[in-house]
Amino acid sequence: MAGTPEDKKKHDLSGPAPEEFLQQIVDSKGKAVMEWYNDFIKEPPSVDAFLDDNNVAKNRHANILLYDHSRVLVEDDFADDDYYHASWLDSYTKKNGYILAQAPFDTQTTQDFWRMVYSHRPCIILVLVDTGGDKDKQKKQSNGTVDERFWPKKDDKMKLCDGRLIVSVPEADQDLETRRYTIQVKEKKAKAADIFKTTLINFRKWPTDSKVPDALLELRAHVLVQQARAEKEALKKKEICGPVMVVCPSGVHRAGTFCALDIVLSRLSEKKLVGLRTTVEMVRRHRYGAVIHYDHYQALGNLVVKSAISSGLISPDQLFDAKNAGGGGGGEAEGGGDDEKKEKE
């Protein structure tokens, strides 16, 4: 993520080198991961906006709170209210580098979602939901809610706020797993220079919270390429490149896990340090319930080790030696989470 050296210094979180990180997991036979996880599953700030009677119907899940201190305000003239279930999160190099947002689920939240997009101008909208693509299929979640596509088809338009806000898709790049759309958002009488354009990436291989997909490293690489293009375009126009908006049904489980991975791997690349535990603690301070599933936390550890090996920071021999020295374990942290502790999405 782009940012000044000042930003990097302010938002960096310390952590061990990859060899030490791996050795800690192996020496404890995977128990270190469970200990770190248990340490940060406690704390709660205020949630007044979430509990406001005017906002209750806008929350997809009654048990997934929204912290006041990090909530994203919808700032525009289209409506009087500023509420959407979304939170700011600092990236590795940039304050408020991400917006973690629940997916809209009805007419009102769809309108508020696109108001938020127009208000804060994200450089990328990453949607971690299988919406059924252009066939408009609907996917039922475990709690009975349905994930509907909340952006128009190619060459279609979506008119919101009594027709004053218009969302359109002039371009679409269809792929089986990852679909990319060019999104335009504009006011009804806007001049060409005032039209906001961004990229929506729909990753369709993460349909439920129960399992983190193996392709997450490849997805991150794809997002980084798109982000670099957006930053180059913003520089050319002498504009500020907006945040990365990450969307999943709750805006918590998949979104929080992806952002935590991105932060850890950015640090690993730049400073050769990990900081998994401190990163997840920071993510959870901004977004209630993030990385609540132990399986997600375990998967993060495994992906960090995999990335460290592929980038040459850990050799396969070191992994083998660490396993032998620790009497087993390795990248796959042992121990399981108690299913009853998992928060349902």
From TrEMBL:
Ranges of residues in domain Tyrosine specific protein phosphatases: 222-298
PANTHER family reported for this sequence: RECEPTOR-TYPE TYROSINE-PROTEIN PHOSPHATASE (PTHR19134), TYROSINE-PROTEIN PHOSPHATASE DOMAIN-CONTAINING PROTEIN (PTHR19134:SF559)
UniProt feature, compositional bias: Gly residues: 325-334
Name listed for the protein in its UniProt record: Uncharacterized protein
InterPro entries tied to this protein: Prot-tyrosine_phosphatase-like, Protein-Tyr_Phosphatase, PTP_cat, Tyr_Pase_cat, Tyr_Pase_dom
Residue ranges of the region described as Disordered: 323-345
Residues of the Tyrosine-protein phosphatase domain: 55-307
Pfam families (UniProt xref): Y_phosphatase
An example Gene Ontology molecular-function term: protein tyrosine phosphatase activity
